[in-house]
Structure formats: C-alpha cells, structure tokens
C-alpha cells in the first residue's frame, strides 16, 4: 500500500550526526506526526533513518545498535571497512519483510555516475537485501566505505546520494525537510527542522568543522 499522508519528512545526509535524526524521529513519532502512512525520504544517514522508521524498530534500539557500530569502528578502524560493518549491522537489525514495509513509502537518494552525476530516487525494492544495498549506495563516500571510487547498484555506478540530493523530496504533496546541521548559519533555506530549533544546544559551524577535521585526521592516520 502506497503511503498517502501529508506532510512527508525528508532527512538530510548526516554522516556521524545520525543520532540527531534518531532524536528528531522519536519526537515526530511521539507527537503522531509520523505514522505508518507518512511518506519518508532520505540520503545517506537520512536513508538509514527512513528504513529504521519503516522497520517498526524503536529509535532507542537503533541508538544501541549505533553504539555497537561505533565501538567496532573505534576498536578495529573505519577506513575501507565501514561499508561492510554497516551492512552487517543492518542485516541483523532490520526485519526480513523490510522491502514490503518500504515499498512506496520511503525514497532512498543515490547519485548515479555518468558524464554528469545525477540524483536518483529509489522507492521500489525486491527484497530486504535490495533495500540494504540501496542504503549502502546512498551512503557510499568514495574511498571511505570501501577501497574503491564507486559502487554498483542495479548495474549502475553510483556514489553517496547526498552529493546530488542532500534532502530528497518525498511522495507527499508537502515535505518537511530535516537537516542535521545548523541550517541557518550554513545559509540553507526552506529547512523545517534543524539544530536551529534548539539554539541553546546546537553546535556552531566552527564546532562542526572541528569535528569534521578531527574525523579527517583520524582517517588520514589510518590510511597513511
């Protein structure tokens, strides 16, 4: 059955700020803004949260799994293996009928590589594995998730969906866009929910940049 409720919710690419999306999703679920008929869309970490919501698992369960993934990467490293670790976690955490729950309801953004990269929205899936492959593709930062510049999805060379569809549209007539970054300070327009909604707790762009630089330095030490 195709989701028809409005508004829909679009979750931005977020990287390691994925827990922010978990908190937003929990609030929207608690308030009844997200139901089983609410269209969802996401890119990268945003695609993961869409699948988690559609799966019926709780956000608290997802947070615990996120901590397990983080501990694995902390102890064994991240570079070139994050994709395999993420896929293993998703296979264990998500239900076997995931594709049925997601079909027509969630849109996963990916970037297809051609003479000019273009964004694609995937909203029909053949199996649980197909959904997970779409999510991995949507999250595929070249050289980070695996030691290759791109990944194959349905015989197409693709990379991270956030490069072309940072906050993809849903199938609803109206879409509320959710950004894990302080949208106002970054000059992003039309954002419905972001850390700007809680100015006393939000990170500044400088703090976000410092976190990103720290992550980059960690990755560089692993690679070189």
TrEMBL record:
Q: What Enzyme Commission number(s) does the record list for this chain?
A: 3.1.1.-
Q: Which residues form the PNPLA domain?
A: 9-174
Output the superkingdom of the source species: Eukaryota
Per UniProt, which keywords does this protein have?
Hydrolase, Lipid degradation, Lipid metabolism, Plant defense
Q: Where is this motif: DGA/G?
A: 160-162
Q: A GO biological process this protein is involved in? A: triglyceride catabolic process
Q: Name one Pfam family in it.
A: Patatin
* Location of the motif GXSXG: 42-46
Its Gene Ontology molecular function terms? Answer: triacylglycerol lipase activity
The entry's active site is: 44 (nucleophile), 160 (proton acceptor)
Catalytic EC class: hydrolase
A cellular component term, taken from the record's GO annotations: cytoplasm
Xref: SUPFAM superfamilies: FabD/lysophospholipase-like
Q: Which InterPro entries match?
A: Acyl_Trfase/lysoPLipase (IPR016035), PLPL (IPR033562), PNPLA_dom (IPR002641)
Q: What does this protein do, in the record's words?
A: Lipolytic acyl hydrolase (LAH).
Similarity field = Belongs to the patatin family.
Q: Check the record and name the PANTHER family matching this protein.
A: CALCIUM-INDEPENDENT PHOSPHOLIPASE A2 IPLA2 -RELATED (PTHR12406), PATATIN-LIKE PHOSPHOLIPASE DOMAIN-CONTAINING PROTEIN 4 (PTHR12406:SF7)
Domain characteristics, as noted in the entry: The nitrogen atoms of the two glycine residues in the GGXR motif define the oxyanion hole, and stabilize the oxyanion that forms during the nucleophilic attack by the catalytic serine during substrate cleavage.
Q: What's the protein here called?
A: Patatin
Q: Which organism is it from?
A: Aegilops tauschii subsp. strangulata (Goatgrass)
């Amino acid at each position: 059955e195709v989701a028809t409720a409005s508004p829909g919710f679009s979750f931005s690419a977020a990287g390691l700020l994925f827990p922010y999306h978990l908190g937003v999703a929990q609030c929207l679920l608690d308030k009844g803004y997200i139901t089983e008929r609410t269209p969802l869309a996401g890119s990268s970490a945003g695609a993961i949260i869409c699948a988690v919501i559609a799966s019926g698992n709780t956000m608290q369960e997802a947070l615990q799994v996120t901590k397990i993934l983080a501990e694995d990467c902390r102890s064994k490293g991240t570079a070139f293996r994050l994709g395999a670790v993420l896929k293993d976690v998703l296979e264990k955490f998500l239900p076997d009928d995931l594709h049925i729950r997601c079909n027509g309801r969630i849109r996963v953004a990916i970037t297809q590589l051609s003479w000019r990269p273009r964004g694609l929205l995937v909203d029909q899936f053949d199996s649980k594995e197909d959904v997970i492959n779409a999510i991995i593709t949507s999250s595929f930062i070249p050289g980070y998730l695996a030691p290759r510049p791109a990944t194959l999805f349905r015989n197409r060379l693709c990379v991270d969906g956030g490069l072309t569809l940072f906050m993809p549209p849903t199938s609803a007539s109206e879409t509320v866009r959710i950004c894990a970054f302080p949208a106002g300070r970054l000059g992003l327009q039309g954002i419905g929910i972001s850390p700007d909604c809680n100015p006393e707790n939000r990170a500044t762009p400088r703090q976000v940049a410092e976190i990103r630089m720290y992550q980059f330095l960690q990755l560089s030490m692993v690679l070189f």
